[in-house]
């Protein structure tokens, strides 16, 4: 008999197979038992009819507890009502490990309770679907950048520099020196772009942000491409092509998961490059006209502002050319204006907020030196970064896409805490 997985049962219609699984849920009457089986690759219903199996097998099916691990044997049958198109007519069940009272029952639980049980909650159908979509976005990311000739480069996690400002750093000791957990791999990716041309990274980043919102994590994962000889506009093109590609890949390869989550896919189908653009100046005017009198030129946008802007479009929208004063030190100034920089944030539709931050980088040595001084950054730590401007400096651009916010948007999940296996939040380091 073949041992297979739930994802592969379609290959064995009307044949008997053996599957290692867990009991996600169970329902039984005197004559029939329904086992919701999950094995990591998917979910399938197992049906056991009392009169068709030895009595002890039926009793085992009736008494097996939720989340016990089992080997089940059964015949694969076509079933129109099943999301995967098949069910299993169970002929035997062997319990591997009987689970004690499982805390997560089919009834409703509060968020804190579910978060305390994150190590178990991950097994649920909904969390399974979100993790599969996360995985598809990561897979599509590697495909996209490899196809476009980018080289994957891994920047360090322990660093001596702070690209995104010094207020949100996780400091630690590095033997006798001070070190920080990486906020962004960008500065190292700039060095890598000068060696390899087009590069991308994918790794964890850390921000000691005291923000408790549905968009903020303390530890999150970022994809950071950096491209030599790419100017601002060239970078926007990569961004819109990349985001379109991951959305279309999820639509193509995760239809079951999107269905499980009840995602309205009509809102995703239309996500294709090019994306609309609005300048920061026009965005402020737009908001003031809309009645937001709490924001003026020079302020950064809050979540309600971003949502209001995004609502005018059915695709992600680039907000370009922010004031220099509210952006990091490394951004290239606008060639005709001293007050704004060549940057853009990409705002996702449906209120999911900023998913990408990016810019052209300053490549002039003197200007970079001046900016580092203006920002009171310790020259010793940035010596190597400044040197990149002394040895064949070129225009270059890059950006960072926040994975969890992107997963939240594409999955239609309200809060980023469900988009990473073990979220690190303001008040949560457990489990
Ligand atoms: O806009 P940010 O801060 O940009 C950078 O770090 C650049 N150095 C990237 C680059 O140019 N290479 O962060 C980039 C993205 C944001 O748009 C957002 O999607 C995500 O990272 N992000 C967060 N996601 C979850 N929780 C947080 N606390 C986040 N902070 C930023
Ligand atoms: Mg940003």
From TrEMBL:
Signal peptide positions (record): none
Keyword Ligase: yes
Location (main, coarse): cytoplasm
Reaction catalyzed: tRNA(Asn) + L-asparagine + ATP = L-asparaginyl-tRNA(Asn) + AMP + diphosphate + H(+)
Localisation per UniProt entry: Cytoplasm
GO CC terms in record: cytoplasm
GO biological processes: asparaginyl-tRNA aminoacylation
CDD domains: AsnRS_cyto_like_N, AsxRS_core
Keyword Chloroplast (UniProt): no
Enzyme Commission number(s) from the entry: 6.1.1.22
Gene Ontology MF, one: asparagine-tRNA ligase activity
HAMAP family: Asn_tRNA_synth
Similarity comment text for this entry: Belongs to the class-II aminoacyl-tRNA synthetase family.
The protein, known as: Asparagine--tRNA ligase
Taxonomy of the source species: Bacteria, Bacillati, Bacillota, Bacilli, Bacillales
Encoding gene per record: asnC
């Amino acid at each position: 008999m073949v041992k297979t997985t739930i994802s592969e049962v379609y290959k064995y219609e009307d044949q008997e197979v053996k599957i290692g699984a867990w009991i996600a849920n169970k329902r039984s009457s005197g004559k029939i038992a329904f086992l919701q089986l999950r094995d990591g690759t998917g979910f399938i219903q197992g049906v056991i009819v009392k009169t068709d199996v030895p009595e002890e097998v039926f009793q085992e099916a009736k008494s097996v507890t939720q989340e016990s691990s089992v080997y089940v044997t059964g015949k694969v049958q076509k079933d129109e009502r099943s999301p995967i198109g098949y069910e299993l007519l169970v002929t035997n069940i062997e319990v591997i490990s009987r689970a004690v009272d499982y805390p997560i029952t089919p009834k409703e639980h509060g968020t804190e309770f579910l978060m305390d049980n994150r190590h178990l909650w991950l097994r649920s159908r909904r969390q399974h679907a979100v993790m599969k979509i996360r995985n598809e976005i990561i897979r599509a990311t590697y495909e996209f950048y490899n196809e476009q000739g980018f080289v994957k480069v891994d920047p360090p996690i322990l660093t001596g520099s702070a690209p995104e400002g010094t207020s949100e750093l996780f400091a630690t000791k590095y033997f006798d020196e001070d070190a920080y957990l990486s906020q962004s791999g960008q500065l190292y990716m700039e060095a890598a772009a000068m060696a390899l041309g087009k590069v991308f990274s994918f790794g964890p980043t850390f921000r000691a942000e005291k923000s408790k919102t549905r968009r903020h994590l303390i530890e999150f994962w970022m994809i950071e491409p950096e491209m030599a000889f790419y100017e601002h506009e060239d970078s926007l093109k990569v961004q819109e092509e990349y985001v379109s590609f991951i959305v279309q890949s999820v639509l193509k390869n995760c239809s079951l998961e999107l269905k499980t989550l009840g995602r309205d896919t009509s809102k995703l189908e239309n996500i294709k490059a090019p994306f609309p653009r609005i300048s920061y100046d026009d965005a402020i005017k737009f908001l003031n006209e809309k009645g937001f009198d709490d924001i003026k030129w020079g302020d950064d946008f809050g979540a309600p502002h971003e949502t209001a802007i995004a609502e005018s479009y059915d695709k992600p929208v680039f907000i370009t050319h922010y004031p220099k004063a509210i952006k990091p030190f490394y951004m290239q100034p606008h060639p005709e204006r001293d007050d704004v920089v060549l940057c853009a944030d990409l705002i996702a539709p449906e209120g999911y907020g900023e998913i990408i931050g990016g810019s052209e980088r300053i490549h002039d040595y003197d200007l970079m030196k001046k900016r580092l001084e203006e920002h009171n950054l310790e020259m010793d730590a940035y010596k190597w970064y400044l040197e990149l401007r002394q040895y064949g400096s070129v225009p270059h651009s890059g950006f960072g896409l926040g994975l969890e916010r992107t997963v939240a948007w594409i999955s239609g999940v309200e809060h980023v805490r469900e988009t990473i296996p073990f979220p690190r939040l303001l008040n949560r380091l457990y489990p």
